[in-house]
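Project outcomes to date are best conveyed with an example. Our students and postdoctoral researchers have been running inverse folding experiments weekly, and each run begins with a structure described purely in tokens. The record below, which covers 520 residues, was selected by the lab manager from last quarter's runs and is presented without edits.
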């Protein structure tokens, strides 16, 4: 009798089938026979103790879907394991009263040996889903398990082997099985939304997953690649709403703060058109409503922005990104307490995300809660020493007139970002307000000269001129920033660096054009 080389079980043990799925083979079983076994059945695995999965009698109200393992270790198929994880998370986030941990938090566990009970304790969730994905030629093998994190018992498990052409239906089936085994009580309309197929074209769906894979890298080059994949998907299925939402996200990113690789207003208008088309095709697409809300802020359409954010969160209550954007909206419109409460919801859904923690720190800074803001920034930097954490912490120290600490943070940001123009502008402003005018003017000249060759935020240039007391030049650049909808303009009423000119008539006029009011 042959034994499995991985688990040492005999071929009479049904667990051996799973080892075959994981890539192990008995010498007595050839590839054709193994494929026949995989194609002919979906096997329900046993728990650690050998018992069948138990049927839960109570609904489970929280879940973490951990990154599916790329079992083949093929970098070219990484988009499949990552993409399927993200789609399941997004689908589950539509379920009312189900807390679904956000992508950026669960992806902190990627590549780690996972103990579901430990993950449950760390994230405060009752259920943990794990999976393995492997593509061999035109065949896709997927194993999924749903574990009760309270005791490690298996709630449900399944192994599938399907053709790549079946990927859309398979994705839908896995999501349905998870919700069913969480014992959730769903209305007919909720079930219909969860089982709605966005596309029946498997190749378009595969291209969509590739687009999201590159979008999540958040760089100029990868956003452009994401657009290319989304557009390829749309060429195969012109009614694929999710692909239009993906295009909108990438277009907006290219014009937003942090990248600004194209004229901001142009990017936001392109994103608006793509998001509108997504919603025309599927008005129940929460991701597209959130994106439209984000774009609406940058186009100074504030009432539209709130409407879109509320609809997004109604459709996807566990959408951490929508909660984050809505928290900024509330701060920009002067509702600081509501803003902090909303970002705390995002933190509950995405506690291991450095960007969300940084955002919480920044919103505390805008609200004037500086000591709390510093503590939050320290927490974010401990998670990930990203240059933005140091940059934004430096601004808090600058506002507190702790200039030496501010310079330390700005220089660290400059080093980590390889001399990003934003870090140089922040250094220049700090030099200006701390009385080191010669250093500020030198950096200002360099940035102004550079603005003739690439995009430099006119908002940043305006701030440096303000710091140097050059009001006329300040408003020249600030008006320019307003005209082109520079990504920073929506921050104008909450950015403490403008306090010294907040009573100027020229400043008040620009705030009016943005569609906001100054906050006391």
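After processing, the design step wrote out the following sequence:
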């Amino acid at each position: 009798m042959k034994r499995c080389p991985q688990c040492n079980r005999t071929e009479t043990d049904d667990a051996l089938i799973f080892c075959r799925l994981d890539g192990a083979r008995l010498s007595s079983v050839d590839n054709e026979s193994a494929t026949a076994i995989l194609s002919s059945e979906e096997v329900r695995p046993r728990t650690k103790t050998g018992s069948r999965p138990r049927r839960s009698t109570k609904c489970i109200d929280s879940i973490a879907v951990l990154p599916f393992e790329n079992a083949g270790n093929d970098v070219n198929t990484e988009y499949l394991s990552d993409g399927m994880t993200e789609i399941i998370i997004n689908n589950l986030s539509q379920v009312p009263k189900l807390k679904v941990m956000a992508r950026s938090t669960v992806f902190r566990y990627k590549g780690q040996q996972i103990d579901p009970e430990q993950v449950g304790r760390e994230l405060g969730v009752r259920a943990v889903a794990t999976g393995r994905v492997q593509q061999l030629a035109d065949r896709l093998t997927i194993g999924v398990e749903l574990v009760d994190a309270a005791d490690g018992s298996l709630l449900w498990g399944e192994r599938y082997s399907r053709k790549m052409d079946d990927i859309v239906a398979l994705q839908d089936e896995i999501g349905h099985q998870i919700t069913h085994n969480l014992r959730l009580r769903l209305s007919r309309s909720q079930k219909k939304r969860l089982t709605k197929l966005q596309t029946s074209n498997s190749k378009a769906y595969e291209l969509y997953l590739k687009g999201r894979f590159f979008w999540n890298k958040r760089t100029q080059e990868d956003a452009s690649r994401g657009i290319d994949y989304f557009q390829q998907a749309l060429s195969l299925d012109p009614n694929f709403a999710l692909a239009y939402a993906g295009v909108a996200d990438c277009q907006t990113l290219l014009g937003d703060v942090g990248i600004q690789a194209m004229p901001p207003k142009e990017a936001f208008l392109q994103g608006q058109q793509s998001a509108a088309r997504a919603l025309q095709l599927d008005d129940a697409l929460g991701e597209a409503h959130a994106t439209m809300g984000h774009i609406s802020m940058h186009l100074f359409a504030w009432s539209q922005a709130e409407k879109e954010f509320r609809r997004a969160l109604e459709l996807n209550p566990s959408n951490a990104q929508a909660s984050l954007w809505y928290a900024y909206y509330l701060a920009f419109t002067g509702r600081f307490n509501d803003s902090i409460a909303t970002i705390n919801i995002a933190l509950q859904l995405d506690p291991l995300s450095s960007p969300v923690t940084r955002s919480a720190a920044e919103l505390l800074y805008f609200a004037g809660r500086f000591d709390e803001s510093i503590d939050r920034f320290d927490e974010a930097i401990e998670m990930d020493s990203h240059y933005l954490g140091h940059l934004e912490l430096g601004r808090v120290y600058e506002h507190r007139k702790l200039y030496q600490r501010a310079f330390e943070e700005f220089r660290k940001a400059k080093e980590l970002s390889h001399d990003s123009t934003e870090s140089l502008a922040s250094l220049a402003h700090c030099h200006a307000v701390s009385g080191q005018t010669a250093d500020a003017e030198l950096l200002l000249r360099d940035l102004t000269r550079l603005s003739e060759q690439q995009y430099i935020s006119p908002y940043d240039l305006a701030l440096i001129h303000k710091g140097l007391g050059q009001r006329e030049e300040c408003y020249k650049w600030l008006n320019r920033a307003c005209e082109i909808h520079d990504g920073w303009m929506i921050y104008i009423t909450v950015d403490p660096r403008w306090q010294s000119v907040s009573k100027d008539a020229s400043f008040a006029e620009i705030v009016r054009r943005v569609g906001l009011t100054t906050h006391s």
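The chain has 24 helices and six strands. Residues 1-51 have pLDDT under 50 and may be disordered. The training component of this project remains on track.
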